[in-house]
């Protein structure tokens, strides 16, 4: 066990985690040169295209140091805030981390939030400056920032380049010298922490776990502490980074176990695997993934509804944080109301449905969950605008707020303060870094964060600002339900919950949008936005009208008036007989959703 080092790499998005991992695998000859490719640990096409890590990937390397062979277990973690719980489980499975900072960009918001996790867990932190080969690298300046951040000497900071391979051996040496080996096993029985898992059609769920106590081997009867499901280990092995079966895994080692289970809702990130005969207590820190963003997914053709259900079932097997329930819409038919960890998580799931399962889907505009307390004391969580209480109901509404960290160049401070004001945000704390950048600690409603805040922040700062956030607490909400009426009939699919301060702007915008996409009817159609018991925006869609006077050639004006009057009476009769009901084509709903 003294020859094992378990470590993780933490950094902001695009600071070179995956590239440095590639060089480590090359230097330790873990991956053959002929099989080497860029981002070797990013196995999904989506990860490779976007240059981001979505699913964490462990890799075991053997490295010679001072004539002795050491085993280095690396867990490459996702950098995006949506996957912070997965990052926290990965950090629980290691003894130390490499803190990577891009020498051209400096410390970013995501770096700070993940670094705090590592500090709270008492992990050894090894600071590393990357991209030192770039001509505009600010090595000394950013080195001083890192030294202040983690209270170390600038001499302790390693310098490396994932592109050229410079300094990679120094990093490997530092891992062995600075990061402690795993602690001795506290129990005789087997216990392992699940930090990730995947699904195979033939072998079922394959869990990735770190062994904390005892030993596990093929054929052992094991149990999941949270779900209580028993199974027999069909295979155990290490990840190097491809699966390699072994006889057993001992305390301190990281590897995989093939379960053979082919049903969702059994394996969870953060769960504990232990012996079924002699179970040990669950390892601390497990929490259920709670959705932050909700959206409805419908198949473009209702014939594909069963296929969509099967596709979501399959995705749930490899991503336990996805949640969904069946729902139906009078316009779009049957579909599923899905819960996601954040906007990026939603984007990835919908993209995987399209790519991996060839599904053509319609996704509604995302919403959040509101806590409604009725006058009789009943508490209800509502995430569909159509179910939001009517105006005048005696209820208390609360909504989730987020605590955010923004790092930006000082030149853009004015733009960002204006943006924060527009999104109902409060600035809690301000700090200026040595390189002239400003750190802002802010709080804001989650609904405002979802209203395109991240994209607007990037635009306001020419792409230089970075943002990280965490869900803080529920607070009283000043919101209202905005309903849309077509020909004085409510259309539930267009309803939305908006901030009371923005309700007038939103009402005008939604009516204008509908006016531009709605086909004309045989009679004048009123488009209205209504909130808090009154209509606050109206547009009239003119009638589609036949030119009844086209056949007239000359003659008295009264002939023309007579025909126009007859047409007018006919249109009134249509409305009286109920023929004036408006049929809204499905493509109007799609265009309204896509525009959002």
Structure description:
The chain has 596 residues and is of the alpha+beta class. β30 and β31 (534-541) form a beta hairpin. The strands form six sheets. Strands 11-10-16-7-8-15-12-13 form an eight-stranded antiparallel sheet. It has a six-stranded mixed sheet with strand order 2-3-1-4-5-6, with helices on both faces. Strands 21, 22, 23, 24, 25 and 26 form a six-stranded antiparallel sheet that branches. It folds into five domains: 4-178, P-loop containing nucleotide triphosphate hydrolases (Rossmann fold, 3-Layer(aba) Sandwich), CATH 3.40.50; 191-275, Beta Barrel (Elongation Factor Tu (Ef-tu), domain 3), CATH 2.40.30.10; 293-363, Alpha-Beta Plaits, CATH 3.30.70; 389-476, 2-Layer Sandwich (Alpha-Beta Plaits); 480-595, Alpha-Beta Plaits, CATH 3.30.70.2570. The model is unreliable at 39-43 and 47-52 (pLDDT under 50). It is elongated. The protein has 14 helices and 31 strands. The chain is 26% helix and 33% strand.
Compact description:
The chain has 596 residues and is of the alpha+beta class. 26% of the residues lie in helices and 33% in strands. The protein has five domains: 175 residues, Rossmann fold; 85 residues, Translation factors (Elongation Factor Tu (Ef-tu), domain 3), CATH 2.40.30; 71 residues, Elongation Factor G (Translational Gtpase), domain 3 (Alpha-Beta Plaits, 2-Layer Sandwich); 88 residues, 2-Layer Sandwich (Alpha-Beta Plaits); 116 residues, Alpha-Beta Plaits.
């Amino acid at each position: 066990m003294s020859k094992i080092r378990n470590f993780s790499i933490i950094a902001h998005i695009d600071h070179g985690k995956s590239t440095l991992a590639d060089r480590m695998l090359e230097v330790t000859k873990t991956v053959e040169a002929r099989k080497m490719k860029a981002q070797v640990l990013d196995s999904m096409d989506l990860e490779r295209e976007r240059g981001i890590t979505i699913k964490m990937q462990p890799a075991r390397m053997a490295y010679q140091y001072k004539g002795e062979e050491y085993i280095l277990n690396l867990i490459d973690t996702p950098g995006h805030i949506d996957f912070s719980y997965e990052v926290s489980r990965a950090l629980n499975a290691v003894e130390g981390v490499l803190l990577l900072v891009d020498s051209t960009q400096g410390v970013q918001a995501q770096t700070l939030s993940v670094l705090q996790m590592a500090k709270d867990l008492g992990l050894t932190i090894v600071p590393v400056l990357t991209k030192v080969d770039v001509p505009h690298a600010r090595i000394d300046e950013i080195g001083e920032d890192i030294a202040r951040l983690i209270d170390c000497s600038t001499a302790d900071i390693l310098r490396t380049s994932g592109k050229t391979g410079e300094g990679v051996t120094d990093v490997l040496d530092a891992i062995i010298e600075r990061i402690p080996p795993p602690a001795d096993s506290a129990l005789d029985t087997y216990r392992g922490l699940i930090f990730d898992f995947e699904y195979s059609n033939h072998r079922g769920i394959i869990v990735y776990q770190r062994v904390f106590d005892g030993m596990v081997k093929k054929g052992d009867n094991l149990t999941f502490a949270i779900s209580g499901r028993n199974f027999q280990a069909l295979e155990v092995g290490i990840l190097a980074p491809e699966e390699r079966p072994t006889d057993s895994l001992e305390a301190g080692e990281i590897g995989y176990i093939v379960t053979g289970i082919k049903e969702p809702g059994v394996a969870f990130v953060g769960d504990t695997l232990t012996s079924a005969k002699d179970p040990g207590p669950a390892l601390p820190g497990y929490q259920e993934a709670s959705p932050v963003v909700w959206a409805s997914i419908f198949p473009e053709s209702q014939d594909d509804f069963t296929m969509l259900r099967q596709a979501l079932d399959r995705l749930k097997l490899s991503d336990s944080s996805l949640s969904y329930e069946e729902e139906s819409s009078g316009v779009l038919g049957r579909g599923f109301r899905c819960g996601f960890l954040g906007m990026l998580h939603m984007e990835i799931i919908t993209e995987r449905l399209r790519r991996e399962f060839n599904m053509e889907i319609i996704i509604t505009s995302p919403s959040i969950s509101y806590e409604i307390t009725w006058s009789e004391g009943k508490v209800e969580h509502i995430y569909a605008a159509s179910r939001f209480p009517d105006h005048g109901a005696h209820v208390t509404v609360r909504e989730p707020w987020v605590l955010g960290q923004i790092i930006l160049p000082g030149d853009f401070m004015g733009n960002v303060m204006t943006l924060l004001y527009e999104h109902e945000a409060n600035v809690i704390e301000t700090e200026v870094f040595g390189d002239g950048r400003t750190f802002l600690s802010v709080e804001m409603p989650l609904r405002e964060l979802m209203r395109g805040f991240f994209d607007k922040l990037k635009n306001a700062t020419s792409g230089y600002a970075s943002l990280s956030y965490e869900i803080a607490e529920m607070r009283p909400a000043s919101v209202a339900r905005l309903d849309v009426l077509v020909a004085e009939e409510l259309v539930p699919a267009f309803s939305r919950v908006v901030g009371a301060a923005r309700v007038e702007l939103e009402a005008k915008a939604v009516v204008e949008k509908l006016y531009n996409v709605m086909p004309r009817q045989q009679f004048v159609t009123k488009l209205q936005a209504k909130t808090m018991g009154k209509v606050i925006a109206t547009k009239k869609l003119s009638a589609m009208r036949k030119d009844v006077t086209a056949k007239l050639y000359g003659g008295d004006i009264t002939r023309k008036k007579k025909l126009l009057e007859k047409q007018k009476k006919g249109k009134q009769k249509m409305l009286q007989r109920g023929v004036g009901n408006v049929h809204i084509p499905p493509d109007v709903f799609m265009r309204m959703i896509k525009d959002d």
